[in-house]
Here is the input.
Amino acid sequence: MSGTHDCPGCGRDDRVQAVPAVYLGGRDSVSSRERDSDGDVRTVTRTVTTGLSKALAPVPEPPGTAVGCLGVLAAAVAVGTFLGGVLGGKWFEDEPAAEPLERNGYQLVRPESPFGDPGPPPDLDFLGWISAFALIAAVLVFTLVYRRKAVFARQTRGRHRAEELWSRGWYCHRCGTAHFLDVPGEDRRPLTLQQFRERVWEHGGYGDLAAAQRAVAALDD
Here is the structure.
């Protein structure tokens, strides 16, 4: 892990490493054998990222997709209640009017059920309301997820500029600071992880997000 120059903070070079190398070195794929809901054994691969790697990321974390699960659930409820109404004969099926039984011109009397009068069929109007509200909720959730992704893509469209500056950064594992070397417009003084993040993200045009996604919070993950 030897560096090519002295750290401006501690004056040592034995633990100076390029920021991209630190970032990539903190990301690893871990595979494990797990049983699924059917009891079958399968191999699951997950990406494990260290807090330091997250703190040195050149771009913000993308918006979460947990709210999208609510949209999927709402859509499932909408479809389920709609099918329930269809199977219950509430929609798309007219109930034929009861006609008296006749044979050879004589009107017959229907035999009474030993269980009594079954009464009118259950009212399934509430299924229609549930289906409608669930469908509206699903559309709103999916619209929100799409808008968040679109806003994030628009905010980070200058990512290539941020990565250009980020790739010329150095990190000292001894004193826990980052710095730039031979970058026009940037001095060589040691920077905290938050200051380094602000410099890089501002270069990409999304520096305001550094206040919401602080580097210290990434280290606590």
